[in-house]
Amino acid sequence: MKCPKCNMSWLKVIESRHTTAEAISRRRKCMMCGHHFATAEIVVPKESIAWVKSDRRNRSSFAVDPKLLAHLVSESHASDSERSKK
Questions:
Q1: pLDDT in tens, 17-31
Q2: I want to staple 61 with a disulfide (CB 3.0 to 4.6 A). Which of 13, 17, 54, 79 is the partner?
């Protein structure tokens, strides 16, 4: 993971909390530029992950089914809006 402002990867987790049973929200701080930002981590079902070759060196990475990813993101945004109403 890299800082969205300076693109460096020296980050510190400031705060973590479980927002739902399947999601964790984390507040992070870039140790290079001091920028604060938030991330959300969502558990993705194993059957929704496909391994794909990503470059000429035969490295592999994974890809998540785009429909499932859109659904998980929309659920996350819905739970955020419900939480902000409280």
A1: 988 888 899 999 999
A2: 54
Alpha-carbon distance of 54 to 14, in angstroms, equals 32
Q: Where are the domains of the chain?
A: 1-42, 44-86
Q: Which residues pair with 38 in a beta bridge?
A: 27
Tell me the residue type at 45: P
The per-residue pLDDT for range 26-66, each reduced to its tens digit, is: 999 999 999 999 998 888 777 777 666 666 565 556 666 77
30 class by beta-carbon count within 10 Å (0-12 exposed, 13-18 middle, 19+ buried):
buried
